[in-house]
Amino acid sequence: MGGIAGPRLVAAVAEAGGAGIVGLYKHPPQEIAALIAETAGLTGRAFGINLVPEVVSEAVLVDQVRAVLAAPAETPPFISFYGLPPRAAITPARDVGREVIVQIGSVFDAVEAVNRGATQLIIQGHEAGGHHLSRRPMADLVAALVERLPAVPVIAAGGISSGEAAAAAAAAGADAVLAGTAFICASESAAHDVYRAKVMAACSADTVVSDRFEIGWPGRPHRVLRNAVTEAAVPPEPAFIGRTVLFGRPYPVPRGSAAVPTIHSSGRIEEMALYCGTGCDAVTRIEPAAAIVARLATGFAAGRNASATDPTVTAAPVTPVTARAG
Ligand SMILES: Cc1cc2nc3c(=O)[nH]c(=O)nc-3n(C[C@H](O)[C@H](O)[C@H](O)COP(=O)(O)O)c2cc1C
């Protein structure tokens, strides 16, 4: 989660046995090196770096990948991409044996991602908070993907904030789960307090898939909490409504910006992009990331055990996964 999943949250997830992923955006190489160094200074365990191919040019993306690969770390980070990256961005990572996890929203893109070199897949259902790759429910996509690509580890994403939801993903055949919304209110998250309070108070019906927050990341619908911007009959004026800090520099936030409100943001937080998945029903308090990881892991294990003992459920083939998403 760009802006929210920084070194503190990622290290806390890693220390708890998950695999936290540092969310990046249009970060220059020196910022990437600094974030990896900071995270590696907080944990010696596996963590990942997330890049978003569609917000940068191919040349910049490849430079970002090279910056990740060049950064020294006790446990070199795996790379995760949001959406299909070009082969040129995957190959350098694969050439040095790095795990490459690609988040996609269809079986078609999953096959293409594997053809381009992805080692694991995150399949995102429409329940997900943040930007959307699919209009289909998570469980349907997982089942379709496990059937089509049985040898590739499949990580389920979308609406998984409780042990029960993690169990359902396991029952659908997932090898692991990825959660975003569940961690917005983690003690170590960098989300703004007003945003966190709204997520804790929200239920799934308070979320909506919108296209209103596309300044900085156009053309990709996103699930957010309903607010004055999503509910206006026409897109409101993109006037400046606040400030934030991006890459260490101040950034004025226009109404309609894709920037999520963080601890560095000020202004009309309630009108900003309050990304949130349908799993917000289960997010009701601030608690350490370790407690959230434990709940999801326990639920996932229970779902897997139930599938193994229920003859009506076809168990998915289990492939060793070297990096679990968090
Ligand atoms: C606040 C927020 C920010 C996100 N930012 C990113 C991002 O920068 N890169 C990315 O790959 N996915 C991002 N996502 C999407 C997640 O990868 C994932 O698909 C989603 O969180 C899963 O659904 P859930 O939020 O219901 O758990 C974000 C999600 C949220 C809620």
Summarize the structure in words.
The chain is an alpha/beta fold and 326 residues long. It folds into 2 domains: 7-186 and 282-309, TIM Barrel; 193-281, no CATH class. It is 33% helix and 17% strand. It has 10 helices and 13 strands. It has helices at 7-15, 29-42, 58-70, 87-95, 107-116, 138-148, 163-171, 193-201, 228-231, 289-309; strands at 21-23, 48-51, 78-82, 100-104, 120-124, 130-131, 154-157, 176-178, 207-210, 222-225, 240-246, 249-254, 266-267. It has a 7-stranded parallel beta sheet. The chain is globular and about 50 Å long. The structure holds flavin mononucleotide. Residues 1-2, 4, 23, 50, 52, 82, 103, 124, 127-130, 157-160, 178-182, 184, 260, 275, 277, 279 line the site of flavin mononucleotide (FMN). The site of flavin mononucleotide has 27 residues, from loops. Keywords: Dioxygenase, Flavoprotein, FMN, Oxidoreductase, Plasmid. InterPro entries: Aldolase_TIM (IPR013785), NMO (IPR004136). GO terms for molecular function: dioxygenase activity; nitronate monooxygenase activity. This is 2-nitropropane dioxygenase NPD.
